[in-house]
Amino acid sequence: MDVKRIWLILEGVKLGRIEVLKLADILSNFQRFLFDYGRARNVRKEYMQLYLERIGEGSVEIQVIPPPALTRHLAIDAIEFIEKLKLNLGDPDRAKEILELEYRENERLIIQSLRKLEGFWSYDGSRVNIAFGAEKIEKKIVLSPEEKQNLSILRKEFEKKYSQSISGVLLESKFYGDKRRFEIITPEGKIVKCYYEPSPELEDKVYEYIKKPVTVRGFFERAGRGKIVEVLDLEGWNEALAKEFAGYRLKKPIPIRVSYDNIENIWCLENEDLELYGCGTTFEEAKKDLEIVFKTLIEGYALEEDRNLSEKAIELKKKLLEFVEVEKIE
To answer: Per DSSP, what are the bridge partners of residue 280?
Structure first.
């Protein structure tokens, strides 16, 4: 029996060239999608492994094959599943039913797989096609760029419903084979270990946010001291003072930048534009210090008559009054 090959065909690529990292991202996401598809069926990773066999001359056309021992590869089922999902992306309820049935209601695997699908779907005007056959293509599935938005919406709905988030300052990252890890310290002072699968996009974010405040979204495991076993994404985190603070009503939220010095173990909160600062060995201490400085600013500038202030002080007063009502809350 002829072994079924899988083709990854990238159309719209100028002169048959593509960025190495982008190609690696597409191949990595496709392979990891297959691993997750196999996990939902209790199939070991080695049986979902693909092997690069041929690269088409003058184009970006890649052929991969299953392990030598297999003639029928579960990857063919996975590709047919992609086609079924693609045909129903315009009907979110039906698409959700297909995903929950295919992944046996394993929400974690559903979200991970949707993220990986986005990772190798068509992008920036270039079209990614997936096909399979023996010596020639028997079936080809076109992953249209126009469908990617519906795929993203579907993934975000699952994430919103099933994943959790936690905020803190990213302290350091460590690398262990296929697993990556970084640690954050939360405002409560807890060190949380966050594990994630290698991904160029996520890796770049980790490097970008080292020593900076982040909000991490993923799946929590509550064993031991607590950790996130599957990180889905992270983004910058900043606090905001809203509604009322230090006995005064706020007209609109005051953005506050959060930072943490892990050498001195000091939290700092600040709004440089308003000359508002607060530091402490805990997040709460920093917030209390911020409150003291805030009251000083209100009493020394916002409540003071202009004739008693310098030109620079009047400018600061105007900025404060954009955010704060000067009458105290009873």
So the answer is: 267
Give the DSSP letter of residue 329. Answer: P
d(CA 64, CA 54) in angstroms, rounded, equals: 7
Instruction: Identify residue 116 by its one-letter amino acid code.
Output: K
Counted residue by residue, the chain has a size of 330
Using DSSP's 3-state secondary structure scheme, residue 22 falls into: helix
For residue 104, is it left (φ>0), alpha (ψ between -120 and 50) or beta? left
Q: Assess contact for 109 and 83: CB atoms under 8 A.
A: no
What's the CA gap between 159 and 70, in Å, rounded?
Answer: 35
Residue entry with tokens 């960025």 = 19
- The partner residues of 143 in beta bridges, in order of sequence, read 128
User: 27: closest CA among 109, 111, 120?
Assistant: 120
Evaluate whether 261 touches 268 at the Cβ level (below 8 Å).
Answer: yes
pTM greater than the 0.85 cutoff: no
- Is the CB of residue 62 less than 8 Å from the CB of residue 54? yes
**pLDDT value at 33 more than 80:** yes
Mean residue pLDDT of the chain comes to 87
Tell me the C-alpha distance between 273 and 266, whole Å.
21
Q: Which amino acid is at 39?
A: R
Cβ neighbours of 236 (radius 10 Å): 13
User: How far apart are the C-alpha atoms of 183 and 49, rounded to whole Å?
Assistant: 31
In this structure, of 149-153, 177-181, 253-257, 312-316, the range with the lowest mean pLDDT score is 177-181
pLDDT of residue 223: 44
Nearest to 209, CA basis, from 187, 188, 231, 234: 234
All residues at 6 or more sequence positions from 300 whose CB lies less than 8 Å from its CB, including other chains: none
Q: Which two tokens stand for residue 36?
A: 């997750």
Helix axes 92-102, 148-162, angle to 10 degrees: 60
Backbone Cα Rg of the chain = 26
Q: At what angle do helices 20-39 and 200-209 cross, to 10 degrees?
A: 110
Cα first-last separation, the chain: 84
Q: Please check whether residue 168 is in contact with residue 187, taking contact to mean a CB–CB distance below 8 angstroms.
A: yes
Pairing status of strand 266-271 against strand 239-241:
unpaired
